[in-house]
Specification:
The chain is mainly alpha-helical and about 130 residues long. The protein has one domain. Helices cover about 80% and strands about 0% of the residues. It is built from 5 helices and no strands. It has helices at about 10-40, 45-65, 70-75, 80-100, 105-125.
């Protein structure tokens, strides 16, 4: 195994990622329902709908990949890591824009707490 190659992902890593992606997918579908039924009325709604248009197919593919036999090796590849970043960023942007559509301060609170949660996650991952 080369210097920059990672070991295959553990079943626990795959399970946690799968739960995360399923959760983000469920939230994305629930949030987009409101825009489908009420229509897009402003810039924040357009941004939210476009972000979810990227997030939903990407998250669906991620859930599929994580439930295949080749997931442990594929999960640690650089292209898939970039794909995961696209999944997460598009979901966060979609949610932030949806919150902005409702109340701009809610979007700021969401972004601040998301950043804090990400920092806690990174610190927790470094402990293991």
């Amino acid at each position: 195994m080369g210097k920059n190659e990672r070991q295959p992902a553990s079943p626990d890593e795959i399970r946690r990622a799968n739960l995360t992606f399923i959760g983000f997918l469920a939230i994305s579908v629930i949030m987009i329902q409101d825009f489908v039924s009420s229509g897009v009325t402003d810039a924040s709604a357009i941004i939210s709908v476009l972000a979810f248009a990227v997030a939903i197919p990407c998250l669906s593919v991620s859930v599929y990949i994580l439930n295949t036999p080749f997931a442990p090796r594929f999960f640690v590849t650089r292209p898939y890591n970039y794909f995961i970043i696209l999944d997460l960023i598009s979901t966060i942007v979609g949610l932030a824009a949806a919150f902005w559509h409702v109340l701009w301060i809610a979007a700021l609170v969401f972004l601040a707490t998301s950043a804090l949660a990400f920092i806690v996650f990174i610190k927790a991952e470094g402990q293991y």
